Amino acid sequence: MTLVLILVLLFTFQTKTVTPLTYHAPRTTKMYAQTTTTFTCREDRAFFMNACAKAPASTTRTADMHSPRCLCNVSHQKQSRPLLQTRRRKKSSALKTVRDDDTCERSIISAEEMRVHLYDSKDLWSTTLHQTLLCNCVEGEDDESDCAFHFQYMPMRNRIEIPRMLCEAANCKYALELIGFVPWADVKPTTPYGKTPTLKNYDKTKSKDLAHEKPIARYLAQKLNFFGRDEDERAKIDEVYEQHWSTIRNHGLTHQGDHFDIHQLLEITDEELSATPRFQDMRRVNSFSPAQRSLASLRVFNEIFAENQSQYLVGDALSLCDIALFETVYELFREESADFDIAERFNLKYLERFLEHVEESHARLSEYMKSKRRVPRYERPGYVYINE
Fold first, then answer.
1. Cβ proximity of 144 and 169 under 8 Å
2. Distances (CA, A) of 143 to 19, 60, 149, 176, 207
3. What dotted CATH number matches 106-224?
4. Cα 180 vs. chain centroid, distance in angstroms?
5. When comparing pLDDT for 32 and 55, which is higher?
């Protein structure tokens, strides 16, 4: 009896003996070993390296596990996905907050409110507004989404005036985002080259902005049919526009420079006036006064009108170069004050005739020049707004 009991116990012990534990890589390891070589995040790499370090040295898959082609295992993938999704949600929320705050900062401002703010600010350096002025829109019906173009610029004329005048001549709805000098520091990093003006989302992809005045002006001129009827006219318009830019606009640097200064021009002496040569006869480096260079620069366009006997600089329709010149001539003849007949004294009768023709034939553009939605002029060097 005792012998039988001993045999039963021995049989039971042998059947319940536990086999030695060995490391088996998950079935999914092979699948991940054949995938991409990158880790989804730093946590993936840390988790993977820790898992490999803990694996027994006898495992047959250790080499594959340490291969840079491997990702972390499935269990960690399941843990990391909620983490990544959370990060995406936080990022999306942050973008929405910025967008909402941006919209709040850029609330709509009326032309009257804009002028009140600028006059109260006294000068450009003290302006704090960051709001949008809707132009040629129906109040109470249109909003920023109804505008064909969206500009960014500081509250001054300068490099945004020609693009604005192109839109005005075409009676086109547009938005002008006015950025005061104080908030400019926050907006500057968001612009293509840290400069304005900017034409926002010009290709309607919500990812591209167009910078610099001349590219913006040319783009608008083509879009709004102010850039000639064929390639020959476009080339000539571009030539005359470039002449205006490099002389009257002083290469875009200032309205009061070495090539043209309207205040210096109005103070020219009789001696300087009689000794002023044609622009074409001046050397690039010369000893002529700013007043003489200003007069010679203006007379270039007076000569063009005299030669082609047309109401426009190129062809028989209003174009980009006409609008650029009109802005200059309007300021000289209409906004500046002089105790003499400018056209007669400076021999600029063709420019005066051009000014009158544009005012009569393009009422929309003429109305804009006298409207409140036009940013006031300022006086240098303090950039103090002129309350006219």
1. no
2. 77, 68, 12, 12, 21
3. 3.40.30.10
4. 15
5. 55
The CA distance from 113 to 151, in Å, is: 19
Q: Where are the domains of the chain?
A: 35-99, 106-224, 226-388
Q: Name the DSSP letter for residue 106.
A: T
Query: Could you tell me which of 378, 384, 374, 387 has the C-alpha nearest to residue 160?
Result: 374
Q: Which two tokens stand for residue 383?
A: 């950039």
- Which of 178, 101, 171, 175 has the alpha carbon at shortest distance from 142? 175
pTM of the model: 0.73
Q: How many residues make up the chain in this entry?
A: 388
- The CATH number of 226-388 is which of 1.20.120.140, 3.40.140.10, 1.20.1050.10, 1.10.1740.10? 1.20.1050.10
User: CA–CA separation, 302 vs 141, rounded Å?
Assistant: 44
Q: How far is CA 193 from CA 64, 81, 115, 212, in A?
A: 49, 38, 28, 9
> Which residue has better confidence, 219 or 85?
219
The pLDDT score that the predictor gives to residue 9 is: 60
